[in-house]
Amino acid sequence: MLRWTFTIFLCVIVLSASLPWLQKIGLGRLPGDVRFRLFGREYVLPFASTILLSLAALVIGKLL
């Protein structure tokens, strides 16, 4: 359980950093992604995008 929590946390960090490029293809704007403004700065927590990409990586890993 701890391993999956760490994996999802790491994916959230990576997706948050690469969000400007991923928004061009539609990731980061899914219904489960959270966006909010605080003190004039926008924060994004891409939970749904993280789960989607994790599932895609799992399927690719199982096929290889």
TrEMBL record:
User: Please, which domain of life does this record's source organism belong to?
Assistant: Bacteria
Which keywords fit this entry according to its UniProt record?
Answer: Membrane, Transmembrane, Transmembrane helix
Output the InterPro entries linked to this UniProt entry. Answer: DUF2905
Name of this protein: DUF2905 domain-containing protein
Transmembrane ranges, per UniProt, are 44-63
Q: Keyword Membrane, does the record have it?
A: yes
